[in-house]
Design brief:
Elements: E1 10-15, H1 20-35, E2 44-49, H2 55-69, H3 77-85, E3 87-91, H4 100-108, E4 116-121, H5 128-137, E5 145-149, H6 157-168, E6 176-179, H7 186-196, H8 199-204, E7 210-218, H9 227-233, H10 235-252, H11 261-274, H12 283-286, E8 287-293, E9 295-297, E10 300-302, H13 305-309, E11 318-324, E12 334-340, E13 347-354, E14 370-376, E15 380-388, E16 397-405, H14 417-427, E17 433-434, H15 436-454, E18 460-464, H16 471-478
Parallel strand pairs: 1-2, 1-4, 2-3, 4-5, 5-6, 7-12, 8-18
Antiparallel strand pairs: 6-17, 7-13, 8-11, 9-10, 11-12, 13-14, 14-15, 15-16
Amino acid sequence: MEHFQQVEPFDYVIFGATGDLTMRKLLPALYNRLRMGQIPDDACIIGAARTELDREAYVARAREALERFLPSDILSPGLVERFLDRLDYVTLDSSQEGPQWETLKSLLAKTQPDRVRVYYFATAPQLYGSICENLHTYGLITPNSRVVLEKPIGTNMATATAINDGVGQYFPEKQIYRIDHYLGKETVQNILALRFANPLMNAAWSAEHIESVQITAVETVGVEGRAAYYDTSGALRDMIQNHLLQVLCLVAMEAPDSLEADAVRNAKLAVLNALRPITDATAATETVRAQYTAGVVGGENVPGYLEELGKPSATETYAAVRAWVDTPRWKGVPFYIRTAKRSGRKVSEIVVTFRPAATTMFGATPASNRLVLRVQPNEGVELRLNVKNPALDVFNLHTADLDTSIRMEGGMPFPDSYERLLLDAVRGDPVLFIRRDEVEAAWRWAEPILDAWKHDKVPMQTYSAGSYGPEQATRLLAGHGDTWHEASE
C-alpha cells in the first residue's frame, strides 16, 4: 500500500532526547513506522541530550518508554529489538561548543554523507539558533539536511522573529520544518477532503448557508507537572495562536490550486491575513479569558490553578475568541475558537452550524443543521438533520444524526499525528508544516489580544474545574444568537 511505502535511508538526530516529548511521542511514533514497514533497516536514530548516559542506558530508557506508552498488543519483542538496534546516543550540551560535537560527527560519518539527515529540536525554542550555529560550525549541515522545529515558535512577534532569523541564518526556508502536530491528525486533514471532494459540502460552504463555526480543543487535565511552563505561556499561546488557527485556516481557506505545499500554505496565509484585528477597544467584546478554580473532574476533587501553581498569576487556562474572516465567502460569519484546561470533558471538534431553512410549512422554523467533525476522541463526522418524528401521526419535526466514525482499514487505530509528520520530514514533503510567513501572520493577529489582556482590558474570569467555562463565554455567543455545541446536545 502506498500509505506504507518505505522511505529512503536516513539519519534522525533528536536534540532533547531524554525529554518527555521524545519518550512519550517521538520514539513510539518511529517504532510504529518501523512496524508498518516504512523505516529501512539501515536507518539511524541518534539521541542527543545533556544527561550523562552511555548507549546501553539510553536504550534501556527507550525500551521502558515503548512499553509504557504503546499498547501491549503492538509490542513485538523481536521488533522492539530491531528498533532499539537503530538507536545511538551522545551526551551533548547542544547550546555549547565542545568535543562532544565531534562524537556526534563521528556517529554520522558512519553513514553515507549524501543521505537524508533530519535534526529534530525537542528542546527549549531559545536554543534553536545556537544548535544551528553548532551544526554549521562542526560541518553537520548538508544539502540533504532538514531541521524540525517544535512549537512554540516564540512567545510574541519579536521572539518568533529572533528564532526564525537564528535558524534561517544556517538553513534555507525549504529545509526548515515547523511542526504542528494538529496538522498530522487524520480528521484535521480530512477537512480538505470533506470540503473539496464533496460537491454537496463545497456548494454550501459559505456565508450564504453557514451561520457560525466553532473550533474547540478542551481537556479534563490541569497543568499539573507543566505548571512552571504553562504559566509563561497560557491557553492562547499554547493552543489558539498555533494549533487552532491552523484548523481555522483549513476550514476557511479558498480551494488551493493543488495539494503542493506552497499552494496549500498560500491559501492558509490568505486566511490569516484576512482575520479582522482585535484591538484594545474590541478585546473585551471579542475575547474571554479565565482560570479554573477547585472543582470535580471525573468524580474526583481537584485543586484550582492557583493552588497547583502555588502563587498568584494572571495566566489564563481558558481562552475563547470570536474571530471574523473578512473575505466575501465569510462575511458576517463568526468563528468561535476556545481552549481550556479542566473542562467537563476532553474533546477536539469543529462544529459548523448552517442557517435554518427559510420555510413555514412545518409550523415552526426547522432547527439548524449542524456538521460536527470530531478530531478526538472517536474521530468521525456527524451531520444533524431535520426529519419527521416517526412516533407521531402529525407531521412534527425532530432532529436525527447521521454519525459515522472514520476508521482505518482492518479496524486498526489511527496512527498518532507525529507518525506521518516525522517521516514527511524525511520525504522532504512540507505540506503539513508551517511556513515562516504563517507564523508571523498568526502572531500579528494574536499579539494585540495578549497585550490587551496584559493591560487588563479584559477582566479575568473564573470557572469551576469540571465545568465548560465561565458564564462570560456563554454570553460571547449569545450576543450573536449562538450557543456552544454542548448546550444544544
